[in-house]
Amino acid sequence: MLRSRMATLGVAALVLTACGGGNAAAPQKKTELTLYNDKGAWTKFFDEMGALSKPSIGLGMKPTGYTDSAQYQAFIKASFRTNVKPDLFTWQTGGMLEEIVKQKQVADTTAVWQEAIKAGDLSQDLAPYYTIGGKQYCVPMNVAYWGMFYNKKIFDKYGLQPPQTWDDLIKTADTLKQNGVKAFYHTSVLFSFVWFEQLMAGTDPDLYDRLSTGKAKYTDPGVVQVMERWKQLIDAGYFINPGDKTDPGDVLKTGKAAMVSFGTWFNTSMTQRDLKPGTDYDFFVIPNVNASLPKTSMIFESGPLCSLAKAADPDASMKYLKWWTTAEAQEKWATSRGDVSANPKVTIKDEALGTVTKDAGSGKYRLVNRYFEATPPPILTAALDGFSKFVTEPGAYKEVLETIQKAADEYWSTHQ
Amino acid sequence: MLGRFRHGYVAPAAILVAVLLYAPFVWTAYLSLTRYDGLEPPAWVGFANFGKLLDDPALLTSTRNTLIWVAGTMVLPVGLGLLVAVLSYDIKGGAWYRVPFMLPYALSGAGLAMVWSPILSHGGIANLLLGVDTAFLQEAPHNTLAMLLVWTWQQLGVNTLLFVVGLQSIPKEPIEAARLDGASGWRLFRHVIWPLMRPLTAVVVGLALVASLKTFDIVWVLTQGGPGRNSETLAVTMYKETFVASDYGYGSAVAVLLTVVTGLASYLYLRRQVAS
C-alpha cells in the first residue's frame, strides 16, 4: 500500500515538475535563437533574416509566427512564468511595453541604443517610443508611416491626382462615387480604429494625445464632431461595406475600393501580389481635415523586437538585437518586404515611401502615435468593439463613445 | 492481489484528470475571485467580478445569443438530423442519401468558418447568388442565425448517423406488432419508434446541449463576436475578456458561470431523462 502511494506521489511529482515554472535554468550558449512573433504572414522574411545572420554574426534565428495576436500575447505572458522562454519576441510599444517592463521581464537595451545612435543606425527621434523610466527596452522591429495606398489605374482612368487638401480628397471620393467606384476601404474587424485616428489626428492632434493619456474624454465635443464627420463620410457612400471580408490587398488590386489607408507595411501585401509601385498603385500622405494646423499629422507606429531579462542566453539575444539595427540587417529586412526601415542609412527602393521616410525624418510632419499603441489595452479593447459597432451602425456613435468612455473612466481611475 | 494494486492501476488516469481537468478548474475558480492581468500577482477582490457580471450589457447579449444557439441547435441540427434519419432509414440506398450530410463533419470549426466566410460576408457569394444586399454577419440576431445554419450544415450528418444507429437498435417485433394493429406513418413514429429511441435521443440532445452552450470557434472565426460584440456567446465573452482584454479575473468569472450553466443544464436534462 505504502509502495503504491509512493509510486503515485513519484508520478505526480514528475508531472508537476514537468509542468512547473522553475526559474533556475542554467545559462546556455546558443547558436540559433527562437524569435516568436505575431506576424505569421512574415515567416518567409524572418527566415531570410535568420539565413543572413548566421554567416554574419554566427547566430541563426528560427521564427515561430502566430496569426492571432490574443493567443500570442497570452503565450508570451505565460512564458514569463515557465521555462519555455523565447530568445527574442515581438511586442507593442506604448502601454503594453510599459506593462511588461514594469514587471522586470524585458532586457534593458540602453547600451544598444546609445551605440546605434552614435553609429547613425537609429534615430534619436525613435528613442522616446522605447524609453521607460529613462532606459531603453527592445529595438525597432519595424517602423511604419500611415497614409493612403491608391489604385493608380483607377485614378488615371478618371483623371485623378493625389489630393493636396481634405477638400481635394472629398472631391476625389465624389468623382469615384459618380463613376460607381467605392472610394475607401474600412472594416469592422481589428482595424476598425483606422478612420477614427486619422480623422482625430487630422482635426485636432492635441486632443488625440490628451485622449490617449486620459486628459480628455471620448464624450468631449471635439471627439463627437470627429465621429459625426466620420458618419457623414459613411452616409455619403464613400466606403465599401465593413463586413466585406476580402483581404485589403485584394480590395485595392481589384479596385473594389480605390483607396486603402494603412501603414507602409501594407506595401508588403502589394509586392506579394506582384503589383508595381507607380504603375499599379501608389501612396500619398492624407491631408489634414483642419487646414489651419501647422503641420500635416501623420500616424506613426513602431513595433519592438525584444529580449527577456531572463533569456536563456542573454548575450546571444543582445548580440542579435544589436545586429538587427545595423544597415546590413535592415537593408535586407526592408528590401525583402518592400517596406521602410528604422535605420536612416537604408535606401528605400519604393520612391513614394522613400520620400515619406525622408520627409518624416526631416520634421515635415507631426508624427502621431498609432491608436493601437497610444491607447491603454483595456480602453483599446472597448474602442475596437465600439468602432466595429459604429461602422455597421453609424447612428450609434454617441452610445459607442459613452461605452468607450466607461472603459476609460474605469482604467484611468487606477492608472493616472 | 488486484485489490492491493488497484490504486496504482487507476493512478495514472486519476493524476492526468486531476492535473489537466480539476486543477485548472480550481485555479480558474480562484482567479474569478481576483483581479489579475496575467502579469501582476492576482489580487483578491471577493465576488466583485460576479457583481460586474450582473451589470455588464455585453453579458446580457452573449447570454441571449447562447440561448439562441441552444434553442436553434435543438431545432436544426438535432431536429433535422432526426428527420433525415427517419426519411432515409427504411428506403433502398438510404445510406447514400446520408453521405453528403456526413462530409462537412470532417471539417474543424475553424475550417468550417473559413469556408463560409467568403459566402456569408457582405457582398459575398450568398449575396450574389440570392441577388440580395443582406449583411448576414453584421446585424443581430441575424448573424447568430446565419452561423447556426453553418453549424447545422456541419452537425446534421453526425446527428443523422446517431439517430440511424438508434433506429437500427430498435427491436423489429414491437414495430411489426404495431403495423399489424394498423399503425403507420406519424402514428407509428410518435407512439412506437420515438419512445423506443429515447435512450439514444437523450445522448444526442445531451451532447448537442453541451456543444451549443460552449459555442466558440465558429463565432470567433466568422465574426470574432462582433460587430460591437453583438454576436458573442458566453464562451466568446470568456475568451475575449481573458485573452484580448487581459482581464483574467473577469474572464474566469464568465468561465465559472458557463461551467455552472452547462453543468446544471446537463444535470437537469439527464436527470429528467433517466427518471423517465
Describe the structure.
The complex is a heterodimer of chains A (416) and B (276). In chain A, the strands form 2 sheets. In chain A, strands 1, 2, 3, 6, 7, 8, 9, 10 and 11 form a 9-stranded mixed sheet that branches. Chain A has a two-stranded antiparallel sheet with strand order 4-5. The N and C termini of chain A lie far apart (60 Å). Chain A has 18 helices and 11 strands. In chain A, strand 4 and strand 5 form a beta hairpin. With 416 residues, chain A is α/β, with parallel strands linked by helices. Chain B is mainly alpha-helical. Helices cover 75% and strands 1% of the residues of chain B. Chain B has a two-stranded antiparallel sheet. In chain B, strand 1 and strand 2 form a beta hairpin. Chains A and B meet through helix 1, helix 3 and helix 17 of A and helix 1 and helix 12 of B.
Write the layout of secondary structure elements.
The complex is a heterodimer of chains A (416) and B (276).
Chain A: H1 2-19, E1 32-37, H2 43-57, E2 60-65, H3 69-79, E3 88-90, H4 95-102, H5 110-119, E4 131-132, E5 135-136, E6 139-151, H6 152-157, H7 166-178, E7 182-184, H8 194-203, H9 205-212, H10 221-235, H11 248-254, E8 257-263, H12 266-272, E9 281-284, E10 296-306, H13 314-325, H14 327-337, H15 351-361, E11 365-369, H16 371-374, H17 377-392, H18 397-415
Parallel strand pairs in A: 1-2, 1-3, 7-8, 10-11
Antiparallel strand pairs in A: 3-10, 4-5, 6-8, 6-9, 6-10
Chain B: H1 2-31, E1 34-35, E2 43-44, H2 48-54, H3 57-89, H4 94-102, H5 109-120, H6 125-130, H7 142-169, H8 172-180, H9 185-196, H10 198-213, H11 217-222, H12 234-244, H13 248-275
Antiparallel strand pairs in B: 1-2
Helix pairs in contact in B: 1-13, 2-13, 3-4, 3-7, 3-10, 3-12, 4-7, 5-7, 7-10, 10-13, 12-13
Pfam family, one (chain A): SBP_bac_8
InterPro entries (chain A): Bact_solute-bd_prot1, SBP, SBP_1_CS
Keywords (chain A): Signal, Sugar transport, Transport
